[in-house]
Amino acid sequence: MRVVGSIATAGLLLAPYALGASSASEAEVIIPNDHPLIYYHGRWDASPGTWWAGSGFKLHVQDLSTLTLNLGPHTTAPLASVGVSVDYEPFYTVNVSAGANVIPLNGSPSSPQMKGTASVVRINVEGWQDNRINLEAISLNKGARLLPYTPSRLAFQFIGDSLSALTSGVGSGSQGQFLPEGVNQAWPFLTGESFKAEHRVNAQPGAALSDIVSYGNEHGVSYQYFRTEDTGYFYTTDHNYTTPWNFARDQPAPTHIVMHIGANDASQNVTADSFVQTYQNFLTRLRGLYSSQPIFVFTPWGWPSADGTISYYYQGRYERIVDERHHLGDHNVFLVNTTGWVTWEDVFPDNQHPNIPGHQKIASLFEAWLIRWGLRPETRWATPAPLIG
Ligand SMILES: *[C@@H]1O[C@H](CO)[C@@H](O)[C@H](O)[C@H]1NC(C)=O
Ligand SMILES: *[C@@H]1O[C@H](CO)[C@@H](O)[C@H](O)[C@H]1NC(C)=O
Ligand SMILES: *[C@@H]1O[C@H](CO)[C@@H](O)[C@H](O)[C@H]1NC(C)=O
Ligand SMILES: *[C@@H]1O[C@H](CO)[C@@H](O)[C@H](O)[C@H]1NC(C)=O
Questions:
Q1: Residues 148-166 pLDDT 10s
Q2: How would you list the strands of the sheet with 155-160, edge to edge?
Q3: How far does residue 264's CA lie from ligand 3's centre (Å)?
């Protein structure tokens, strides 16, 4: 369900000015951005501001009826699109800007206004660009109280390119064909949701794994993954630099790592041998962060054409990458053979990237794969919400 509009229009029709300054001044509960009960996820800089699609925060709030995001000057102008979900209901888009943004909470049928109930609100940036929200404070209604948010035991880390996060206008001719709700509709996000897991998506459209300039990305993912900022920093006047990411801030640490990358290396004519070497070096570096977690290496599902053929790249090389890890004694790296997962009907004809049903199909195929592999979805979210089992 997609819901737009303001909560001010729900139930306050007889008092259209009721949310004005007088109610805000004394009534509201102000949560500063350094409040320990804000559960941040994804990559945030010191301002604090988001980078990378999917970054955001979660709140567990007792007696919630209104929520306003007060955003600072490092927020994308004129707006950034965020996905909002209340009590694990479907995400809907809210466009926010620097200043005060009343977030409609009417996406939830479970009536968060009910006295004595606690709601879970999840908010994340949707885009791979124009994705900066600079959180100064959160205002809640009088009487609302933050509770701890307990993260899931499962935490996915996805690493990829536009095939994991295409949200708008990548490459020529693709304008207008994209996921309207951004990363929230992409297979990594959907997979994380279906396992009731925490999930972080570091996917940079146009970027190669190799650290080369590619389709407007100043760096490849083998470099940028270790940074706070996505490669959009290069085009940003108020933050034209990149800083190391402190992986200790990823709490909980990822339990499962998923990689689907290589399409842009292939397009940039990176040789297969060079690509394999870069991938190996990257995995070695990941093992420094994630000593024993399973790593899932996707083979490309390729570029489908209208005539039913599919063009593959680096054929046999992903197998080699995984075999080589096994030879090194690292048996916790697994090949996910995605051959045949994506056909012409699953992609946007203009840019051959998965469309909305295509992403859902990929997510369900990968979910089935993971279940066969031995991973069980959580039966319930670790932080319960009213009316959710
Ligand atoms: C958010 O802004 C984008 C870009 O202006 C627009 O296309 C979209 O319809 C807006 N979405 C909502 C829910 O307001
Ligand atoms: C950011 O800095 C780089 C040099 O490091 C420069 O090439 C680029 O044009 C700058 N971008 C902006 C938006 O100022
Ligand atoms: C890659 O090689 C092909 C075939 O030689 C060539 O047409 C294309 O321009 C090259 N692309 C890049 C980015 O160098
Ligand atoms: C991947 O799957 C395809 C289609 O089922 C099959 O032809 C191919 O041999 C598989 N590759 C590997 C490495 O298992």
A1: 999 999 999 999 999 998 7
A2: 198-203, 155-160, 256-260, 295-298, 333-336
A3: 12
